[in-house]
Amino acid sequence: MNRQLMWMTVVGLLGLAQVAAAPRATGAPHRNFTPQEQALLRSRLLEAGVDGGLVAGLRLDTLRCYPGRLRLNLDYNVKQGSYAQYMEPATVQRLKDFIHRERELFRAAEEKHGVPAEVLGSILMVETRLGDNTGQFRAPDLFLTLMLHEGATQDAALDSAVARESRFGGSRGRAELAEIIRGKAVERARWATKEIRSISQLIPLQDWDTLPCSYAGAIGLPQFMPTSLAAYGDDGDGNGRVELIKLDDAVYSVGRYLKENGWRGRMTADKRFKAIRRYNHSDVYARTVLKLARAVGLPDAGR
Asked: Which domain holds residue 156?
């Protein structure tokens, strides 16, 4: 069955209004999309190649716009966060127990992708505390919100940029800052469009209401972007779908991601670090994952 026919079958069986209007809980402040925003989103979704039947059936009036994510701020000397809490004894012990309890799953994933259980488990711990914290947003709603950035630069965002420029000793004027913000807005909107297109291709419409994500749009236990799910998702439980909220699929998908980004059986410490850093472009993150992995039993790197 081709993808378009599959979507139409799902939509027809479930009923578009009932699917999209299902009750949804969200911890992030939100409002409804305005009629003008709904029309703009439908147009941009169609331009991006999202299935026309799905677009026509989307109850955008029941979805959430997150106004806090519509504000763009320019970054000034942003410091990387601390991950020290993941090295607390109780957290290390919890991860050890978890890996032991799920040892058959981790063993199978390691046999397929070559990534040790200690590394796979450490990533899931640092990303979502083994699934305890998968985010307060809903992924489709968030990416639809971010699609509205293009052509919608707000005066408040520009005022904030001007104030921050002065506070941090910068020399850029209001006009230059406005152009920078417009460029960032276009970039973010186009990125969000690619992500929502991946969601539309990979995740059935009836599951959109139960697809939590982070502030940045990362989904599931391993916090993949939807485009990363498309590129690296692996069906660990063999049910024909990759659902990153499920442990089997999450573990196998992390293994595939690392394998395809440089992880090999015997590696130097530097190569291990580079492979983990490709998962999250943060030195602190990569060091923390490897330190936690060693704390739960990962052997020292080779030379």
From this structure: 3-65+136-206
Do residue 35 and residue 92 come from a single domain?
Answer: no
How many other β-carbons are positioned within 10 Å of the β-carbon of residue 217? 24
Q: Give 298's Cβ-side CA count (13 Å radius).
A: 26
pTM of the entire structure? 0.84
Contact 298, 119 (CB under 8 A): yes
**Average pLDDT of each block of 10 consecutive residues along the chain (303 residues)?**
39 34 59 94 95 93 90 63 91 98 98 98 98 96 93 69 82 87 89 96 90 95 98 97 97 98 92 97 96 96 68
210 to each of 135, 193, 205, 236, how far by Cα in Å? 11, 20, 10, 20
Q: Which two tokens stand for residue 101?
A: 């309890």
- For residue 13, how many other CB atoms are within 10 A of its CB? 9
